[in-house]
């Protein structure tokens, strides 16, 4: 069950090897979570995440081989997860790849693959998750979106548009879930220092994965539907969202 | 019978969950047994007026049986002072019957808007616990519909199993069955007034010393300013009293000494903004409250409702906490561990957790119910605004302290306790579980509280069963659904 602070006892991470996902899972385990299921591509990344979550004190950690792009298999895969481990109080969707923008601009198939991984796959999975949680009568979905989706930029528009799609999808789904006992929280981090962003020039207001996790726990308690990390980005985007295109295009990064 | 899927919370308005709320007709109590035998996949729990603060009277994905229509007064013995009532009757309704006839309920909490069933299932206490014990002590017998059948239970039953079932139901948080009716011992009163002595305590030691002398009062409580620190830590206003005798009333009241018709004069606005009750507003309130109280005033005559149920004067006051709701933190620590109580007050004051005046009281001895909250010691209760993640670890830290000291948290108020502390706080938990299991061997009864704390000790098999049966449903969520099938309902 989720408690009065929105803290879950069981957690499913879709995209289980995500560093931000791992940071959130660890903080949830440090509070009330005793069961964590990490679903993702099998490999050392998933195993390392499992070890880290176990190290944080989870009573039970399971890994499940799961392919975000297998949209036809989502319903069955999630039903199986619930049958084995349910009920699940919180589902964290932490699937995403950045892609090499320059290469993607000239490789339509690769660009489409990024869109599938970041948007089509998670969106389909979210529908299957929402059905499971509705039937439970309670639960929380946390989706890692990005400020890159808030206003899509020249420098990473494949990634940015995938997050814009996912973010919009989640806003609608959150409204569809109103009154069901299920809550959907959208997280919009700025630049987070992870493997995914390694080698990229740092951006202003960049944060560590742990800072995203802390913000998520704060949002679970406060009931915020959207969490910006760091919080200052919310104000920044009030301005950025309305800049004229000619000006926005000239911004660095 | 009415049924619809509804989002339910406790009085604190945190952690909502969706369940099928079923209101059964009052004239056929056996329908409650049928409903339990139906075994819906998500589990079943009973709900009265929804005044427990946390998640005791809700069950996510399951069925909630409302006792709202089960509200008749069955029998009143005006000579012996015994009343038999159905479990859905509120203390408010019962008092309106009783007081004009010169009788009072054995125990009343800070609100009249609780049901008799809830009062028993939470083994509630009032300002007279140090003299009269908890609500369970005044129950002569009760009728319980559990999945194994309907039975009448009494503390003096000849059958040991019945006695055990009685005490497992008192304080059992609704997890032994649905209480249908109860027979209660009453307190005779000459008037509908209380003779109140008020005094201020300037600090913690002063406060405890004054509360030690409680025995001369039937009712006693102290309102503590939880924002006061340093030398003012524990400053409080004590109000203590007893039922006024007829000859103590002023002439104006003496003409009709048993008049009792309380009304709520104010309504909280429906949409209070976030943060209305913040540190500044609450500190100002607390200061004013403390200053307003006379340093010492003896023999003031107050109406029952002013003395016992001040918050009932504002209907829906829980909404003042805004959309994030609030939680009530109520603990008890044994006599002799006053240092822990002081540390708790210090820590709360340090954390600047805005709280309206907290309530401190000395409890008398525990009753025989294994899951009952009160034990001989000090109980402290405070309301805290919800929505603040930083408060969670502070309360966890206090829980560790009080658990180590032999204290516990009140389940009817809880919405956030760490489950691993439960067995230490309630050392007779296993004994209660064994009796519960006899009454409900198939684990039909289940609440969000039960799942969250693993009260029943089997990691919620019914929730897992419900989840395994989930089927994709249409998008709209909170609409009323058609009748469920007996097993495996559709997902709305």
Elements of chain A, N to C (H/E): EHEHEHEHHEHEHEHH
**Structural class by SSE content of chain A:** alpha/beta
Shape of chain B: globular
Intertermini distance of chain B: 19 Å
Mean pLDDT of chain B: 90
The CATH topology of the largest domain in chain B: Alpha-Beta Plaits
Taking pLDDT < 50 over at least 5 consecutive residues as the criterion, the unreliable ranges of chain A are none
What count of helical segments of chain B does DSSP give? 15
Q: Low-confidence stretches of chain B at least 5 residues in length (pLDDT < 50)?
A: 468-492
* CATH class call of chain A: Alpha Beta
Helical fraction of chain A: 40-55%
- What's the multimeric state? heterodimer
Which CATH architecture of chain A? Answer: 3-Layer(aba) Sandwich
* CATH fold assignment of chain A: Rossmann fold
* Total domain count of chain A: 1
Q: For the report, how would you describe the main beta sheet of chain B?
A: 8 strands, antiparallel
Radius of gyration of chain B: 22 Å
Q: The biggest beta sheet of chain A, please? A: 7 strands, parallel
Strand order of the largest sheet of chain A: 3-2-1-4-5-6-7
Spatial strand arrangement across the major sheet of chain B:
16-12-14-13-19-20-18-21
Helix content, binned percent of chain B: 25-40%
Plain-language structure description:
The complex is a heterodimer of chains A (253) and B (492). With 253 residues, chain A is of the alpha/beta class. Chain A has one domain: NAD(P)-binding Rossmann-like Domain (Rossmann fold). Chain A has nine helices and seven strands; from the N terminus they run βαβαβαβααβαβαβαα. Chain A has a seven-stranded parallel beta sheet with strand order 3-2-1-4-5-6-7, sandwiched between helices. In chain A, β2, α2 and β3 form a beta-alpha-beta unit. In chain B, α5 packs across α13 and α10 runs antiparallel to α11. Chain B is built from 15 helices and 21 strands. By secondary structure, chain B is an alpha+beta fold. Chain B is globular and about 60 Å long.
């Amino acid at each position: 069950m989720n408690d009065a602070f929105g803290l879950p006892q069981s957690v499913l991470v879709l995209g289980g090897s995500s560093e931000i996902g791992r940071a959130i899972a660890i903080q949830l385990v440090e509070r009330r979570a005793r069961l964590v299921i990490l679903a993702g591509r099998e490999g050392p990344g998933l195993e390392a995440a499992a070890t880290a979550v176990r190290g944080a004190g989870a009573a039970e950690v399971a890994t499940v081989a799961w392919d975000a792009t297998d949209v036809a298999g989502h319903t069955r895969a999630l039903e199986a997860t619930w049958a084995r481990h349910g009920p699940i109080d919180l589902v964290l969707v932490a699937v995403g790849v950045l892609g090499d923008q320059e290469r993607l601009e000239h490789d339509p198939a690769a660009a489409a693959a990024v869109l599938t991984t970041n948007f089509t796959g998670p969106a389909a999975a979210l529908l299957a998750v929402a059905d499971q949680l509705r039937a439970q009568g309670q639960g929380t979905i946390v989706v890692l979106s990005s400020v890159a989706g808030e206003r899509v930029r020249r420098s990473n528009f494949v990634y940015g548009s995938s997050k814009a799609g996912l973010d919009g999808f989640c806003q609608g789904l959150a409204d569809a879930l109103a009154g069901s006992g299920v809550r959907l929280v959208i997280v919009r981090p700025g630049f987070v220092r992870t493997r995914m962003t390694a080698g990229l020039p740092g951006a202003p207001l960049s944060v560590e994965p742990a800072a995203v996790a802390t913000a998520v726990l704060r949002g679970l308690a406060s009931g915020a539907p959207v969490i910006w990390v760091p919080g200052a980005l919310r104000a920044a985007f009030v301005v950025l969202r309305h800049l004229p295109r000619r000006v926005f295009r000239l911004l660095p990064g | 019978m009415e049924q619809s899927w509804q989002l339910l919370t406790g009085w604190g308005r945190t952690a909502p969950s969706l369940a099928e709320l079923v209101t059964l007709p009052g004239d056929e109590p056996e329908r409650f047994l049928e409903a339990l035998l139906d075994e819906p996949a998500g589990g079943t729990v009973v709900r009265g007026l929804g005044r427990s603060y946390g998640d005791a009277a809700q069950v996510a994905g399951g069925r909630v049986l409302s006792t709202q229509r089960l509200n008749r007064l069955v029998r009143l013995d005006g000579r012996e002072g015994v009343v038999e009532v159905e479990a859905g009757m509120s203390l408010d309704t019962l008092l309106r019957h009783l007081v004009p006839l010169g009788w009072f309920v054995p125990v009343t909490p800070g609100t009249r808007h609780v049901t008799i069933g809830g009062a028993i299932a939470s083994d509630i206490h009032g300002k007279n616990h140090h003299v009269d014990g908890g609500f369970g002590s005044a129950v002569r017998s009760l009728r319980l519909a559990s999945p194994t059948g309907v039975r009448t239970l009494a503390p003096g039953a000849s059958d040991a199993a019945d006695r055990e079932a009685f005490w497992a139901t008192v304080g059992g948080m609704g997890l032994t069955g649905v209480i249908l009716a109860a027979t209660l011992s009453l307190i005779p009163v000459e008037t509908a007034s209380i003779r109140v002595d008020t005094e201020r305590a300037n600090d913690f030691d002063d406060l405890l010393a004054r509360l030690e002398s409680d025995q001369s009062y039937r009712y006693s409580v102290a309102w503590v300013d939880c924002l006061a620190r340093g030398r003012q830590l524990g400053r409080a206003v004590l109000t203590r009293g007893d039922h006024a005798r007829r000859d103590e009333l002023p002439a104006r009241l003496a003409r009709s000494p048993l008049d009792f018709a309380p009304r709520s004069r104010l309504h909280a606005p429906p949409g209070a903004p976030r943060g209305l009750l913040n540190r500044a507003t609450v500190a100002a309130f607390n200061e004013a409250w403390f200053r307003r109280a006379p340093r010492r005033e003896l023999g003031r005559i107050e109406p029952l409702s002013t003395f016992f149920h001040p918050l009932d004067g504002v209907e829906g006051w829980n909404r003042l906490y805004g959309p994030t709701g609030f939680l009530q933190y109520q603990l008890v620590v044994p006599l002799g561990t006053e240092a822990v109580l002081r540390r708790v007050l210090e820590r709360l004051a340090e954390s600047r957790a805005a709280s309206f005046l907290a309530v401190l009281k000395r409890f008398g001895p525990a009753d025989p119910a294994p899951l009952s909250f009160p034990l001989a010691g000090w109980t402290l209760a405070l309301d805290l605004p919800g929505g603040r993640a930083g408060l969670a670890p502070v309360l966890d830290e206090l829980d560790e302290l009080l658990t180590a000291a032999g204290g516990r948290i009140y389940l009817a108020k809880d919405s956030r306790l760490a489950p691993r502390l439960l067995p230490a706080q309630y050392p007779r938990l296993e004994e209660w579980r064994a009796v519960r299991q006899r009454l409900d061997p198939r684990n039909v009864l289940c609440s969000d509280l039960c799942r969250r704390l693993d009260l029943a000790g089997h990691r919620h098999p019914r929730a897992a069963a419900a989840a395994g049966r989930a089927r994709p449903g249409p998008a709209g969520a909170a609409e009323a659904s058609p009748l469920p099938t007996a097993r495996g309902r559709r997902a709305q």
